[in-house]
Write a structure and sequence with these properties.
With 301 residues, the protein is an alpha/beta fold. Helix content is 50%, strand content 14%.
């Protein structure tokens, strides 16, 4: 199988190496950068669509539409977005954005705990592909599954997209919690558990499977994010705890978008609300104290 990859950055190259490990041939379509080292590539993205039935989009969320416009996929192509699930500037799920830009056969999303540097160094990892089409899920599993990468299937496309979008937000919250004066593993564990509960409730409210938050797209991705020093979303949280407010970090835009989504469903998401309040200038310690003083309640997911 020849598998097309839109995006020649490190994530695109990592996916290409997983395709090779699964015994297939990748073709990376890139623009505005040097050719990826060693791996088969072209600076003509439409060539990728013309020669590969399956396309994996390995760009940042805000570049997905541009990647589709450049590659011009059509009715013979299946397109899987290997990103964070939501375009924070529009609030649209990324597979929907793909369909808005091109008349493709099927769409899907790939998520999970797969750190780029670990893939490039040959470490073991796993992910989940979601699509409403079992044909395309099987196609992605065939393209990526190997002794290096376990690829699971899901039919919860919206849930995987939403959960993937929430994980940078929760990683940022963990970065805040662990870098406040007097913080310890107790608040770390509380934010992790209650953050996943908020994710599950939000998933249920939008018609997704709430258990998706407890799988590879959710808890596994979050564990990977907070377990490694220097993770970009965790570091955004550290900056917020130190009184610095980064404006352009993806997690910041995603936090606002997810909070808006929750509000549109009249859903109580206190952790999301606290992070947005911090981004709006509330001192982190005040936001945390407000969370701690909420009325006690029965623990429910």
């Amino acid at each position: 199988m020849r598998v097309g990859i839109l995006g020649g950055g490190r994530w695109g190259q990592a996916l290409a190496r997983l395709v090779v490990a699964a015994g297939h041939e990748p073709l990376i379509g890139y623009r505005d950068r040097r050719p990826p080292h060693v791996l088969p590539s072209t600076d003509n993205p439409p060539e990728v669509s013309a020669t590969c039935e399956l396309l994996l989009v390995a760009t940042s969320a805000d570049k997905v539409r541009q990647a589709i416009q450049l590659a011009q996929p059509g009715p013979t192509n299946s397109v899987i977005v290997a990103g964070r699930g939501m375009d924070p500037t529009t609030g649209r799920w990324l597979p929907d954005a793909v369909r808005e830009e091109a008349d493709v056969a099927h769409v899907g999303a790939l998520a999970g705990p797969a750190p780029v540097d670990e893939i490039l160094n040959g470490h073991l990892c796993a992910g989940v592909v979601a699509s409403t089409s079992t044909v395309v899920s099987d196609q992605v599993v065939e393209a990526l599954h190997s002794s290096r990468y376990r690829c699971y299937r899901s039919d919860d496309l919206v849930g995987v997209c939403m959960t993937g979008a929430m994980m940078p937000v929760l990683a940022t919250l963990l970065g805040v919690a662990m870098n406040l004066r007097g913080a310890g593993v107790g608040i770390h564990a509380m934010v992790l558990a209650r953050g996943l509960a908020e994710t599950a409730r939000l998933g249920q409210a939008i018609g997704a499977d709430p258990t998706t938050a407890m799988g590879l797209a959710g808890v596994a991705d979050l564990v990977a994010a907070q377990a490694r020093p220097g993770h970009p979303h965790y570091d955004v949280g550290r900056a917020i705890a130190e009184g610095r407010l980064p404006d352009h970090a993806p997690a910041v835009s995603l936090a606002r978008a997810m909070h808006t989504l929750a509000a549109s469903h009249q859903l109580d998401t206190p952790l999301l609300a606290a992070l947005v309040a911090m981004l709006d200038g509330e001192p982190p310690i005040d936001a945390v104290q407000r969370l701690m003083k909420r009325d006690p309640k029965r623990e429910v997911a």
